[in-house]
Design a protein that fits this description.
29 strands; ten-stranded antiparallel β-sheet; Beta-galactosidase, Chain A, domain 5; 380 residues; 1 helix; mainly beta
């Protein structure tokens, strides 16, 4: 069936002025194989994924994302106070980021809480003013823009289609020039698909304006650790290098890269590296691609006999931003087009930092797929 989703509560709190859409799949009779069963999507928050659930042998129904209940999310995703620019969207669940992911530096104006910065358009620098919605917490730390301009943006159109094979929700955001904060004009088309064996999302961005459009897209999922035993979790990231940062408060790139092979951040082995007590807030680049051109990362939780494969199918994904504090039972793995501060002067001339440049009428697709399976790795 096909129906247009209306902004009515349906017994649940509205978030961003729209109801939560819950995609579902019937549980199979064979419970020996892990399967996806449900996903909660927020059209009022740029199609943010609030939760994905799966049925896993040995542990039953489990949360794939570290997130909030609908009621809790409705109290945090208010668009006011600390969430005025939508920042709460990237503190749990899985927000979609555009027209840039990660950090952008600039000249900070405390009176307007904005930064003025230059981005590259048609090979020339052009000044834009962005919300300063991120920054270090220490006294005097630099403030910057982070994670794009759609965090609290509701979808303009939403349509759901359910069949025997999949439950799908599509949406459109006609972002224009993002309220004068970016250049040209952007239309974003979202598609989120729940199947028994996969969860997929894609964003098709089209330059519907008259000038070149620099664009970065990312996804910010907090992946749960079902066992709660973070120290034994194994992570595989198909990267050869890591972006060095000034510190773990501001987390700003220095313009230097370091090889991951043999370092404490080396997650390049397909069997994965044990997280232990390692703190991660790092951007991994120089990615190894599969024969299909995909970027394939893996999270394995041997204690729960649970594993998740994150397949970034878009060839434009150039970075994997991670975040994993030792005292929290989650790991963030963000497939992104762009590196941190992609227009920054710290990068040597000629460095490809991942922004896609679209001519008028051109489109680019961001796409990622989750696959769940039982790992063969024993508990250490």
């Amino acid at each position: 069936m096909t129906n247009l989703i209306q902004a009515t509560s349906g017994g649940m709190p509205l978030i961003g002025g729209a109801e939560v859409i819950t995609l579902t799949r019937p549980a199979p009779s064979d419970t020996a194989t892990p399967v996806f069963t449900a996903a909660q999507i927020l059209p009022g928050r740029a199609m943010m994924v609030l939760q994905v659930r799966a049925l896993v042998p040995g542990i039953g129904e489990t949360d794939v994302l570290s997130s909030r209940s609908v009621e809790e999310a409705s109290r945090e995703l208010t668009g006011s106070g600390p969430d005025i620019t939508g920042n709460a969207s990237f503190s749990f669940g899985a927000a979609i980021l555009a027209p840039y992911a990660n950090r952008i530096r600039g000249r900070y104006d405390p009176s307007t809480q904005t930064i003025a910065t230059d981005i590259v358009v048609d090979g020339a620098r052009r000044r834009v003013t962005l919300p300063s919605n991120g920054g270090g917490k220490h006294p005097g730390a630099e403030q910057y823009a982070i994670h794009g301009l759609i965090l609290n943006r509701p979808a303009d159109e939403v349509r759901r289609t359910t069949s025997a094979e999949a439950d799908i929700v599509r949406a459109v955001i006609r972002a224009g020039d993002f309220a004068g904060q970016w250049v040209s004009a952007t239309e974003l088309r979202f598609r989120t698909t729940l199947r028994t064996d996969t969860f997929e999302l894609s964003v098709v961005a089209t330059n519907v304006g008259a000038t070149s459009l620099p664009l970065g897209i990312g996804w910010h999922p907090y992946f749960a650790i079902p066992s709660g035993r973070r120290e034994q979790v194994r992570v595989h990231l198909p990267a050869r290098q890591r972006v060095l940062v000034n510190n773990y408060d501001e987390v700003l790139p220095t313009g230097q890269l370091a090889p991951v092979k043999g370092a404490m951040w080396d997650c390049s082995d397909p069997a994965g590296a044990t997280l232990g007590t390692t703190y991660l807030d790092d951007c991994f680049v120089d990615l190894e691609k599969s024969p299909e051109g995909h970027t394939v990362s893996t999270i394995l939780d041997p204690a729960a006999a649970y594993a998740l494969r994150i397949v970034a199918t878009s060839p434009h994904v150039k970075a994997l931003q991670t975040y994993a504090p030792p005292d929290r039972p989650f790991i963030v793995v963000e497939p992104q087009f762009n590196w941190a501060n992609p227009f920054g002067a710290e990068w040597p001339e000629g460095t490809e930092t991942g922004m896609v440049h679209l001519s008028p009428g051109e489109s680019v697709t961001y796409s990622v797929r989750l696959e769940i399976f039982v790992p063969s790795v024993d508990v250490a």
